[in-house]
Amino acid sequence: MSALLLAALLAGAGPGPRPELDIEWAAPAPCPPQGEVELRVADLVGRPLVVGPDAALSAHATVERRGRRFFAEVKLVAGEAHELRRLQAEGCSALADAFAVMVALAVDAAPPSPPAPPPPLVTATASTATTAAPPPATPAPRVIRPRPARPRPPPPVVGWVGVEATVSAHLALPDPGLGAGGAVAVAVGPWRGALGFVAHGAGRVETEAGPTASLWAWAVTARACRRAALDGWGIAGCLGAEVGQLRGTAGGTAVGHGTAPWAWGLVGVEADLPLALGAEVVLRAELAVAGIRQGMAVELASGAELAVYDVPAVSAGLGFGVRWALLDLRQ
User: Fold this and answer.
1) Per-residue pLDDT reduced to its tens digit, 243-291
2) Rounded Cα distance, 305 and 291, in Å
3) Which residues on adjacent β-strands are paired with residue 66?
């Protein structure tokens, strides 16, 4: 009864998967082991591989070390086709990568393996008295599955785009008061740039003719800086320009208005101290060189002009602000 049951089981068993690759990696330490090489091949092919003897494609590599370099002799056999290649590399892992690429390309180019032949039909009768010797065991095919793809890390941040709000004082104005401004700022690596707008205020100015005048200036500003990172903060050297208009109004018994160009070249330094939520405090000190030295005069209602102010050749400016990085720039 047991012989009949064994025959039924053997007859009903389907053919197993036929190996499509017979791979052998013989290498000394510190080379990757064969299992790691097989996984690299499966990762490159992108699907499970059935590995075992009697495969349609065989790939054998023998590695030896000579001095600081590794050499491999690779034999590829696919049916009647034979190929012998020699590889060399500084590191054995790089050699294993090259072998894995070579095998993966050969697997992709190989035709699909035919299914394994069905097992022979075994018959048994109750009168069977002798049992045939089993055939020699061969290694069972193994399935090598590719490793799960690792999530790619996000590209590194190389800069940011943000906004800046500042209060400042331009010492070129007589009796300078506080000004205010804003800018759009961009950082790429060690470089920083800003394009913005600023309004400078001043107190009342006594003129030689007696009436007082109030002055203020508006300007478009542009700065380019190169920053050096220090321990927890940074310092940068900057070049820039400030171009706009100086405006004045005379009061008292003589009422009038006037304008003059406002143009300065800027050279300075700024320091930044990071805060939370992408913000940083900015301190700025600049030397300002006048680009246009045109005196400020107010045209009175009578038509006469009242000299109010002469622009100095050199001045200075101070600023304090907060800068926010709103958008990261990545590679």
Assistant:
1) 999 887 776 555 677 788 889 999 999 999 998 888 999 999 999 999 9
2) 24
3) 69
Overall domain count for the chain: 2
Residue 123 included in any domain: yes
Return d(Cα 228, Cα 320) in angstroms, integer. 19
The C-alpha atoms of residue 241 and residue 74 are separated, in whole angstroms, by: 66
Report d(CA 176, CA 201) in Å as an integer.
6
Place of tokens 């034979």: 82
- Which CATH number is 196's domain given? 2.40.160.70
Specify whether 164 is located in the same domain as 302: yes
Q: Are 56 and 45 in contact (CB under 8 A)?
A: no
Q: Rounded to whole angstroms, how far apart are CA atoms 223 and 91? A: 49
In single-letter form, the type of residue at position 173 comes to L
Domain range for 105 is: 2-127+135-144
CATH of the domain at 52: 3.30.160.100
Tell me the mean pLDDT in the region 29-35: 91
Residues 176 and 309 occupy one common structural domain? yes
Q: How many angstroms separate the Cα of 229 from the Cα of each of 162, 189, 193, 283?
A: 19, 11, 16, 15
Residues 140 and 168 in one domain: no
pTM over 0.90: no
CB-CB contact of 34 with 158 (8 Å)? no
User: Nearest CA to 113 among 163, 51, 68?
Assistant: 51
**Statement to judge: residues 63 and 119 lie in one domain:** yes
- Tens digit of each residue's pLDDT (9 = 90 or more) over 126-143: 444 455 556 666 677 888
What span, in angstroms and rounded, lies between the C-alpha atoms of 135 and 139? 13
